[in-house]
Amino acid sequence: MYLSKLFIPILKDLPSDEKIKSHQLMLKAGMIKQSAAGIYSWLPLGFKVMKKIEQIVREEQNKIGAQEMLMPTIQSSEIWKESGRYDDYGDEMLRIKDRQGREMLYGPTNEELITEIFRSSVKSYKLLPQMLYHIQWKFRDEIRPRFGVMRCREFYMKDAYSFDLNEEDAKNSYNKMFFSYLNTFNRLELKAIPMSADTGPIGGDLSHEFIILADTGESQIYADKKIFDIRLDNFKNEKLSLDKMRKDFSSIYAVTDEKFNEKEFNSKVSKDNQVKMKGIEVGHIFYFGEKYSSKLNCLIDDQNGKKIAVKMGSYGIGVSRLVGAIIEAKYQNNIMKWPQSISPYEVAIIPNISKNNREYLKKGIEIYNKLKKQNIDALLDDVEENMASKFKKHDLIGIPHQIILGAKSSNDKFEFKEIDKKSELLTLDQILSKLLK
Ligand code: P5A
Question: Is this structure's pTM higher than 0.90?
Answer without folding.
Answer: yes
